[in-house]
Amino acid sequence: MNPARKSSMRIATLFLFPALLWSATRAPVPADHAMVVAAERQAAEIGREVLQSGGNAVDAAVAVGMTMAVTYPLAGNIGGGGFMLIRFPDGRSTFIDFREMAPGAATRDMYLDDEGEATDESVVGYRAAGVPGTVRGLAMALEKYGTKRWRDLIRPARMIAERGWVVTPLTVSTLTDNRRLELFAESKRIFLNNGRGFRRGDLLKQRDLARTFRRMEKQGPEEFYTGETARLIASDMAANGGLITLEDLAAYEPKERRPIEGSYRGYEVLSAPPPSSGGAGIVQMLYMLEGSDYFKAGPGSAAAIHYVAEVQRRFFADRAAYFGDADFVDLPLGKLVSREYARDRAQDIDPDRATPSREVRAGLGDGKLDGETTHYSVVDEDGTAVSVTYTLNGLYGSGVTIAGAGILMNNEMDDFTSKPGSPNMFGLLQSENNAIEPRKRPLSAMTPTILSKDGRVAYVVGSPGGPTIINSVLETILNLVDFKMNLQQAVDFPRFHHQWMPDELRMERHGFSPDTVRLLEERGHKIRFIGRQGRVMAIEVNEDGLLGAPDARSEGLAAGY
User: Fold this and answer.
1) Of the listed 171, 212, 373, 516, which one is catalytic?
2) For residues 21 and 43, is the Cβ–Cβ distance under 8 A?
């Protein structure tokens, strides 16, 4: 097989390193005018239709998000929250934070038992849910930066929920033996077919959810927070020990924030600010890598993986110590994303030996200073780029479906620090800065990111995957910028993840050669194999047009024209 693949678009030449045996076997999808890349095909196609009808990237992003709340229930949602990063053709940018918030009755120790140990109530059931932000967040984006009418953008989602949709192999696999959904009558009725389960090709109808969309279609997005839908949510919560009230729903507000900014080897980098740790992580790690020649050993080599993993280890130590909702705690953000700090942080990296995590401390001291998800990317004809990551947190969230409304609820409260020193569902250690407080937003790893060069958008990228999101986005950027891969190769290339604690290097099982693994173990890494890491959805803009790349790990689609 010739290691150089040619196309009329930009296709880079790659040496056939062992890890490339698992790399892309298809070319990225070209388009002349605009592109949507999403993990669910119907949603991507609806986004493309919005663009073709004269809508802009924000319009398409709203339609995609609302559609995936129906057709991608494992992560798409109106019962969760997320982030939207927008870059306009003139270089301006903005970030819309519609992360969930803790209910007003939430307390710091609400998930500890009588012995002070963390329970599973932050993960499963009604008490695990934060106040949803998706509807108001997407509505804010549309009102400020969109051109289409709300009702026109959510109508496709309502129609699909009414008539039903054919369940995909991924949906079937994630619903099979889903113990969390089995615990709740409405979830079992809708998503487990009354206990009979679904098989590929079956039709899944969501009539209650369709009625919720119809109310919002007629009355607008506020219906979710102050109308019949709000009353259904609050009533079901009250009847089952949940905390979300009518007052909580009415008080929820999305926030517009300034994106994290950085640069790397000639590219401008825009990414997510707190309450996400992702943008700061991307910039800090890129700055740590900037002064090195880690990439000379080649993609998939033990030397390159080792060095990047050491960088990841150091950022995640900082994440554990410092990060939280910047509306509630003081963050040393300027320091953490400075080149000077990154250079200092990288000084003790040994290119030949892994540093035990017990020896890696947060870089600014003790931390006392004055995390299932999906992603989609959109670029329109005018060059506006939108990068959206939104989430229910766990697969199908808390497992709860609101009676009469058909809304799957998040389990985002687990992203708070239930007990300092105890890992959450992703194994992450977090600090007092992320402790539970009423109206506070939990720390996130969602990392919608846009790279620009010479004043124009170059790449739009993001991924699901809890804490692995940050490293999946980082590695995709490195594949593009340092290893000169084409877009599909960069997205499909095997991934790895280090998050400081637990002290292990997680590697995709079917991506790396035994020799590479052996060399990493000889450097002192403890290897843990995983099935897959992330589902990156990416767009490239170049002089010939656009390219779209849905991750080979997904059932996604690049829909352009």
Assistant:
1) 373
2) no
Contacts of 286 (CB under 8 A, 6+ apart): 262, 264, 269, 474, 477
Distance CA 188, CA 172 (A): 14
CA distance 430 to 432: 7
Tell me the average confidence (pLDDT) per consecutive run of 10 residues in the chain, 561 residues long. 32 35 74 98 98 98 98 98 98 98 97 92 97 98 98 98 96 92 97 95 97 98 98 98 98 98 98 97 98 96 98 96 91 95 96 95 50 89 98 96 98 90 73 91 97 98 96 98 98 97 95 96 98 97 98 97 98
Residues 6+ apart with CB under 8 A from 479: 299, 485, 489, 490, 493
CA 30 – CA 219 distance, rounded (Å): 39
Catalytic status, residue 373: yes
| Burial tier of 162 (Cβ tally within 10 Å: 0-12, 13-18, 19+) | middle
Q: Tell me how far apart the alpha carbons of residues 420 and 89 are, in angstroms, rounded to a whole number.
A: 43
Strands 267-271 and 35-38: unpaired
Domains of the chain: 22-31+260-358+445-560 (3.60.20.40), 48-256+391-434 (no CATH)
Q: What is the pTM of this model?
A: 0.93
